[in-house]
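Help needed: design a sequence for this.
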């Protein structure tokens, strides 16, 4: 079992991402190339990142000062809830407006307006559900 956003966890997440055609095909169609950071509320910087080129993860691991295109933060308990119960479109607006999900970098409104990006965004939570995760910091 790996701690959420640890380098091992991020590598497992990347394997699930790259094996999922729904992720890779939609993001490739959108020409999606980005560096995405993940962390918890109160962290000075993200803990883990994925670097994505044309829809596929090319690097997953610890954040080492890379320039981020997206950086998402939530409390550990909130991540645990979303990973256990799922995270649908109906939860996105509430999560952002209530401050449960903070996009430190990136414009979620732009992302949800593009179906080739919105579907994979929601799908990445489903992929997280399949990981053996320890929710400690």
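Sure. Designed sequence:
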């Amino acid at each position: 079992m790996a701690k959420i956003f640890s380098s091992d966890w991020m590598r497992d997440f990347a394997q699930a991402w790259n094996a999922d055609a729904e992720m890779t095909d939609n993001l490739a169609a959108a020409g999606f190339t980005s560096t995405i950071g993940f962390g918890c509320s109160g962290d000075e910087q993200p803990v883990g990142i994925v670097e994505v080129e044309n829809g596929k993860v090319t690097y997953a691991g610890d954040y080492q000062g890379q320039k981020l295109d997206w950086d998402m933060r939530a409390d550990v308990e909130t991540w645990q809830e979303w990973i256990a119960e799922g995270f649908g479109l109906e939860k996105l607006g509430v999560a952002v407006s209530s401050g449960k999900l903070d996009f430190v970098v990136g414009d979620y409104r732009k992302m949800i307006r593009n179906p080739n990006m919105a579907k994979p965004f929601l799908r990445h939570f489903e992929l997280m559900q399949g990981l053996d995760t320890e929710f400690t910091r």
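The chain has one domain: 2-129.
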